[in-house]
Amino acid sequence: MLPTIDQGPHDHRERPIREPILVFGAPRSGTSMLFQALSTHPDLWSLYRESQEVIEKLMAPALERHDSEELTAEDLGPETAAQLARRFFDHVGNAEAASAVRSRLPLILRARLNRLLTAGGSGAKPASIRIVEKNPQNSFRLRFLEGVFPDAWFIYIVRNPAPTIASIYRGWSEPRFRLYPVPPDFTISGFRGTNWAFGRPPGWRDMNGRSLMEVCAFQWRSYNERAMQDTARLGDRVMRIRYEDLSERPGEVLNSIAEWAHLDPRSLARFADRLPVVNTWSRPSAEKWRSLAPQIEEIMPSVAETANALGYEVVPSR
User: Fold this and answer.
1) Domain 16-279+288-309, what fold?
2) Which one of 110, 254, 276, 307 is CB 3.0 to 4.6 Å from 268, fit for a cystine?
């Protein structure tokens, strides 16, 4: 059962969005895979994409000030919080409830369709809805998001560092993940691009001159250390799940999430045996990272403490 939350002077019926489910974790940890599954639930409205456009356009001055993907409670006033909640309300859709045909579309096509359907505003929606939202950058924004959604629930996905860091490393070669220009004097050994891939954790400039694999290890460690720190006080409002459990026993994990979040598990039954493949050209495999094993072993000492804190046994090789 979800514990009762003190709603303050305004209960959830006066909010456009109530008890949203916010999914986060380090890049390449399975957040998209889970998000696609949850986005098909008829009780949950969704952007069907990450929330950068909704959050970052409004919060651009604060992001520039932080020089990273971090947003804090101090960046949020009551008016901005109300604006963000309304922006989410206006931009989310519910393809599952609207059409069974749409629900079978891949996530990227559902996102495009949703943009068309919501281009004119909120459309015909109930006064208060429940959403599922996903963004790895949420790892650096939990207190900020609590200010927007005081009754939010959080799903934190963790994954063994070796395959995750290997997947982040491969992602740096894909233009779709390289979102942020780096200064002309910023160099990454072994990388010739001019844009930073995935999110920029606080302190990213300290990686100047480091190898690409060191940068990827820094990203994995930074996302998880901040997530562990800021979820420690959330109690039953956060559910931490392992990527390995999600990929090996999706039905069991999804049933647990449904029970925790008060969702009908029958609407997720299609994923009982296999979750959708998202943002990758091949099915997930526990062994794909081994082609990068020598470089991965070099950086394992830098992530061992964080990995062990997450329940992954890592013995530094040096």
Assistant:
1) Rossmann fold (3.40.50)
2) 254
